[in-house]
UniProtKB/TrEMBL annotation, chain A:
Protein name in the entry: GMC family oxidoreductase
Pfam families: GMC_oxred_C, GMC_oxred_N
Domain Glucose-methanol-choline oxidoreductase C-terminal: 394-510
Family assignment from sequence similarity: Belongs to the GMC oxidoreductase family.
Membrane-spanning parts: none
Keyword annotations of the record: FAD, Flavoprotein, Oxidoreductase
InterPro entries the record matches: FAD/NAD-bd_sf, GMC_OxRdtase_N, GMC_OxRtase_C
SUPFAM superfamilies: FAD-linked reductases, C-terminal domain, FAD/NAD(P)-binding domain
Start and end residues of each Glucose-methanol-choline oxidoreductase N-terminal domain: 131-306
Automatic annotation (TrEMBL), chain B:
Transmembrane segments: 21-41
Gene source species: Marinobacterium alkalitolerans
Record keywords: Membrane, Signal, Transmembrane, Transmembrane helix
InterPro entries: TAT_signal (IPR006311), TAT_signal_bac_arc (IPR019546)
Protein name per the record: Twin-arginine translocation signal domain-containing protein
Lineage top rank: taxon: Bacteria
NCBIfam families with a match to the protein in the record: TAT_signal_seq
């Protein structure tokens, strides 16, 4: 638990980030006897720090360092400094998630082949297939405790009132709807309790029924004595030697003192804004465009999923907050059927917000006020609805760049995020709005509200995996095409976003990557 | 009305703000007589007219006709209290109210408080909604109304549930109208 490694110990793996990717990788490597230091920018929280309070948790755990969001999308106007809604803390974004754990569909690994060239998009097939990933999905489901799967044998949560409303609407329009496979215990399992339906899954589960690396992978990794987690340690740059291999990570501790931790191998798992940012900030005479960036793809193809909210108002109470946050999914439109007017698919994820967040997101931005909004909020208890989650087209100009002049508290250039819709995203969202409305009205909604996208919790693609070095940043193992001892272990390695929430795939890839790293070390290649 | 040196802008805040606002604004709710304390530090911080204007404005931003004034005042009072010490805020509030009245005069030849129809007031407010003044009031109200645990039962929201054992045995699956 209290393992301390020397800064000059160059036999270590240094992992930047402790979330789904970094936290999982650290534990998987530790179980194989491989030592690592985890640099986590945020603090270490305890279960007691988790409250059933939306704004308090937002203020407590969110990544709120300065960022700019640019582009013509409404999101940039409504949230000019908050492109992403992710976490700064040990456990990373596995604190802030609803537990939705779905595997990618087979075709989602080869969207280029499926659809050919999509004008204006930079679509590529993944260099791996579902078949290759399936065994790792199974391991990930076991590790995370995903209910409703063969891997755990745990039953679903049971149908909440919110779910029942949507299920009935789906039935009436002939759409497929199922309870969600969630990484939330429905039985006492793996040292964690069963869900008691607090209704606050997203911002941290108070009782630890939902999987988070904060209280699973991290303490287990530490218990091996082979892992040291250093909270409040912000990675500043990755250094390399004359051969172009990385040698360690310069970071700032909580007092701003800088340290250089030597490394045998570096894994970057800091989420899809910070990961490319770190590579770009590590530019050197040998790598003038940033590490691993020979293709120019570092920071490009930023994807968030095509999202929006849809909430119907009914005549009778639903009390949607008395439910797991995502009790079910309408799967009807998750396939790739261009006859709908868009390529790729989307899920309608039954999802509730509490009243505080509903007031902020029902009509966000400066003009979100007035009687219509207030009347809808007065109907809060009679609402039911969705969060739309669809595949987002990779577009090169949706990207992460460094601000030319402005620096953050660490002295690093502030990240600038540019993100706007591809026309396919807009068409998909409109299709989803229409089908949602049809579903909600079929079960009696008197009014249906369309919520524009809010800051992204699914961030992907900015260090993407590719078969050829010219098209992407990492190979099929998440290993840099250019620097063999540099790995990407988070969602930034996604080649395309898929329709499904990214966490399960990140974890599956991290388990697989750990196998590869261990094997390569054994062979003397790393 | 001047604030005397003995009065501190602490506990008195909410009700005194309410008191002054209630006098100035007719027809927006019953004010219990016990709250009609004459010396209003809030009013003295931003002026009696401004206090009344802010309350009217607050009720138009998030209009819930069944919510008592005290909930809106509870948002404005700390703001006015802060303005007593924060000159920049005081200036923003004073100038914001002035700009609101100016816009109202332009459109309807009357001050904002004298506009009887909600639709007229909304027109004036829409014209200034981009201003930091409006956004500050709106932001504080959003938190004060919708993030106020005292009001959550009125909106049918349950708030923190873990300490009550969640909803697993408290009706998470109950619905009788499908």
């Amino acid at each position: 638990m209290n393992t301390k490694f020397d800064l000059n110990d160059d036999s270590l793996v240094v992992i930047v980030g402790s979330g789904a990717g970094g936290g999982t990788l650290a534990n998987e490597l530790a179980q194989k006897g491989i030592k690592s230091v985890v640099l986590e920018a945020g603090k270490r929280f305890k279960l007691d720090d988790i409250e059933n309070d939306e704004w308090k948790m937002f203020g407590k755990i969110s990544w709120l360092d300065k960022r700019y969001l640019e582009g013509p999308a409404r999101l940039a106007k409504d949230f000019p400094n908050l492109p992403a809604w992710i976490v700064k803390g040990v456990g990373g974004a596995t604190m802030h998630w609803a537990g939705v754990a779905m595997r990618f569909q087979e075709h989602e690994f080869r969207m280029r082949t499926e659809n050919g060239t999509v004008p204006g998009a930079n679509v590529l097939d993944w260099p791996i297939t579902l078949k290759e990933l399936d065994p790792y999905y199974y391991k990930a489901e076991q590790k995370m405790g995903v209910c409703g799967t063969e891997a755990t044998g745990m039953p679903f949560h049971g149908k909440s009132s919110h779910y029942k409303v949507i299920e009935e609407g789906a039935r009436r329009i002939g759409a497929k709807c199922e309870q969600a496979t969630l990484a939330i215990n429905t039985q006492i399992r793996d040292g964690r309790p069963s869900c008691q339906v607090n209704g606050f899954c997203m911002q941290g589960c108070r009782i630890g029924a939902k999987w988070s690396t904060m209280y699973t992978e991290i303490p287990r990794a530490e218990a091996t004595g082979l892992v040291e987690v250093r909270p409040q340690s912000m990675a500043l740059r990755i250094e390399h030697d004359k051969q172009g291999n990385v040698t360690g990570v310069l970071y700032a501790d909580k007092d701003g003192n800088q340290h250089f931790q030597k490394a045998r191998l570096v894994s970057v798992a800091a989420n899809s804004i910070e990961s490319p940012r770190l590579l770009l900030n590590s530019a050197s005479p040998m790598f003038p465009d940033g590490l691993a960036n020979g293709s120019g793809q570092v920071g490009q193809n930023y994807m968030t999923h095509t999202t929006a909210g849809v909430y119907g108002e009914f005549e009778q109470p639903v009390h949607m907050y008395k439910s797991t946050v995502v009790p079910g999914i309408v799967h009807e439109w998750k396939d790739n059927d261009p006859s709908r007017g868009h390529v790729a698919g989307y899920e309608l994820e039954v999802l509730h917000l509490g009243l505080p967040f509903m007031s902020a997101f029902l009509n966000p931005g400066k003009s979100g006020w007035g009687r219509e909004l207030a009347d809808s909020l007065a109907n809060y208890d009679r609402m039911a609805g969705f969060w739309i989650c669809g595949e987002d087209m990779p577009v090169e100009s949706n990207n992460i760049t460094l601000h030319p002049t402005e620096k953050d508290q660490y002295g690093l250039p502030v990240p600038v995020v540019y993100k706007t819709d591809h026309i396919n995203d807009t068409r998909m969202r409109n299709h989803a709005y229409d089908r949602s409305t049809e579903l909600l009205e079929a079960v009696g909604a008197k009014k249906v509200n369309y919520l524009p996208p809010y800051p992204a919790s699914h961030n992907m693609g900015t260090n993407r995996m590719s078969r050829h070095a010219r098209d992407g940043v990492v190979n099929r193992w998440g290993q840099s095409h250019e620097i063999q001892n540099l790995f990407i272990s988070d969602g930034s390695q996604f080649t395309t976003s898929g329709t499904e929430n990214p966490t399960l795939t990140i974890v599956a890839l991290a388990i697989r990557q750990a196998d590869y790293i261990a094997d390569q070390m054994k062979r003397g290649n790393l | 009305m001047k604030r005397t040196s003995k009065e501190q802008p602490t506990d008195l805040g909410r009700r005194r703000f309410l008191g002054r606002s209630g006098i100035a604004v007719a027809g927006i709710g019953i004010i219990s007589s016990g709250l009609l304390t004459p010396a209003a530090w809030a009013a003295s911080a931003v002026g009696e007219h401004a206090s009344a204007t802010l309350l009217r404005m607050a009720r138009d931003i998030y209009p819930h006709d069944t919510l008592e004034n005290k909930y809106y005042a509870a948002v404005l009072t700390p703001l006015a209290r802060k303005a007593g010490k924060d000159m920049a805020l005081k200036k923003m509030l004073a100038e914001g109210v002035k700009a609101l009245d100016q816009r109202s005069q332009q459109l309807f030849s009357r001050n904002f408080l004298e506009l009887e129809h909600e639709s007229d007031r909304v027109l004036v407010l829409r014209a200034i909604e981009e201003s930091p003044f409006f956004q500050r009031i709106k932001g504080d109200l959003m938190m004060g109304i919708y993030n106020n645990p005292e009001l959550w039962p009125r909106f049918g929201y349950g708030g923190s549930a873990w300490q009550k054992g969640g909803y697993i045995n408290r009706g998470y699956d109950k619905i009788d109208w499908l």
